[in-house]
Amino acid sequence: MTAHPNTEPLIRVMALHALAYCERLFFLEEVEEIRVADAAVYEGRAMHVEIEDAEPMEPLELADEEIGLVGKVDALRRRDGTLIAYEHKKGRSAGGEAWESDLLQVAAYALLLERAFPSTVVEGRIRYHADNKLVRVPQTDALRGRVLDAVKHARELRKGIDRPAVTMNERLCIRCSLAPVCLPEEERLVDDPKHEVIRLFPPHRDRLTVHVLNHGTRVGRTGNSFTIRDLEGTKTVYPAAEVGDIVVHGYSQVTTQAITLCAYQEIGVHFVTGAGRYVAGLTPGAGRVQRKLRQYRALTDPVVCLQLAHQLVRARASGQIAFLLRATRGRQERSDDFNLCIQRMRNGLRGIARAESLDALRGHEGQVAKAYFEALPVTYSDDVPPELRHTIRTRRPPKDRFSAMLNYGYGLLYRQVMQAVIAVGLEPACGFYHTPRSAAHPLVLDLMELFRVPLCDVPIIASLNRQRWDPRRDFDVAPARIWLSHDGRRKAVQIFESRLEQTWRHPVVGYSLSYARLIELEARLLEKEWCGKPGVFARYRPR
Ligand code: SF4
């Protein structure tokens, strides 16, 4: 970026276009450096290529340190001694006139041109292709003043760390490529609980997760694709544009060339052990500093941490109770032991509501979790073999098959939540409930609490009840521990990935989305808790 004499970076003309459209869009793009190329952006680029093929354009990059502006005029023409900055727009004009943001953009180009070529007459023109309108924008003092005011305002905004409020004009959001990041509709819901949310958040993942399960596999690169070859020589090719992240289970290798491609295309690479424990990840785009500063500011405040922890623990405990009651619905009679467990969990939930410290919360959460695991066997069908049923929960290392399945599932969930935390630009090491005691990142552990039941417990128990597991073939049994075998890991990944793709209607925001997207949505809603719009995070209850 070109530096201003006062060491301030110059403002891009395109940034002024964003600023005139919506202040928050300017902040997201220029300050937080979040850019999303959606279908409309691609169509716009394609249109420029078509125009250029038909009539070669003369682009010109101009920077003016005195007024603090830089921009590239895509199409510059000279007509009868007048220099004309052309701007092509895919959409319609504003009833034959230019839209405010387009006007500001072309006036900024014209200002740069007249300062670079002082004795030349300069004009801007905007061609709206959808209704075939050409709007001429002669340069005036009023327009020059608007450009300079906009540059000043942009500089002021760039000094802050807080996002400006969402625009009052809801129609702008419908066409905004950053709506899935900004979530304006969800903020309007905070202000007005009766607001009917328009879904601007994508319902499904747009790129896949590639799991490399066979030991000794090599992940290489051929052009813009990944080539995955196992020890038997079986080769699978994935175009990089279709891959969201690569998960390497156990001992396989990823070449430097493949890692470089991942870095360029913002594809995460994650390494997990054969037992499902997360080891490390390479995640590009560390997230801009403003987001982290806001997070540190909030999560170093014990009051904020306690409030968030309350929401989180209540959500998990309510989800556990709801799951047990739903799984036993329709049964003639629930046993006394089961009813007692539910009673203990409800007592724990009341304690959670009253807890005045994180330690007190942990105590009540532990009470609920203990009763939950004691009650869990009632969710098994009669056909589940005894070896697959659990008696007590064992963690590291797992000593029974059920714990081995659960541990592996939680490892997969950890990776998925980590991916979402990074995508949102949060700092995974800075959490509000879990303490930084192990290699695991506290914020990832915090968010996982919302998804353990719907993404691991529910599908694992459903798969047991459908008799998808083989007590011998799917497990690797040693005297001191039980792990999943290669077949078992493959099965766990299939179950987890297919659960991630299942869609359901979020009861609070009111639209449908996949569980994979739900994780990202909750991470974005969490960030809103310390960005002035709290109240929607951790409010959904799992199905
Ligand atoms: S979604 Fe709406 S509020 Fe958010 S940046 Fe875009 S236009 Fe502005």
Write the layout of secondary structure elements.
Layout: E1 11-12, H1 13-21, H2 23-31, H3 39-54, E2 60-64, E3 69-73, E4 75-79, E5 82-89, H4 100-116, E6 121-128, E7 133-138, H5 141-159, H6 170-174, H7 179-182, H8 184-191, E8 208-212, E9 218-222, E10 225-229, E11 235-239, E12 243-249, E13 253-254, H9 256-264, E14 268-272, E15 278-282, H10 289-299, H11 302-327, H12 336-354, H13 358-375, H14 401-424, H15 442-448, H16 452-465, E16 475-478, E17 481-484, H17 486-501, E18 503-505, E19 512-514, H18 515-529
Parallel strand pairs: 1-3, 5-6, 8-12, 9-13, 12-14
Antiparallel strand pairs: 2-3, 4-5, 6-7, 9-10, 10-11, 14-15, 16-17, 18-19
Helix pairs in contact: 1-2, 1-4, 1-5, 4-5, 11-12, 11-13, 11-16, 12-13, 14-15, 14-16, 14-17, 14-18, 16-17
The structure holds iron/sulfur cluster.
Q: How many DSSP-defined strands?
A: 19
* Ligands present: iron/sulfur cluster
Sheet with most strands: 4 strands, mixed
Based on Cα principal axes, name the global outline: elongated
Helix fraction bin: 40-55%
Report how far apart the termini are: 48 Å
Mean pLDDT: 89
Unreliable parts = none
Structural class: alpha/beta
Rg over CA atoms: 28 Å
DSSP strand content: 15-25%
Strand order of the largest sheet: 4-5-6-7
| Number of H- or I-type helical stretches | 18
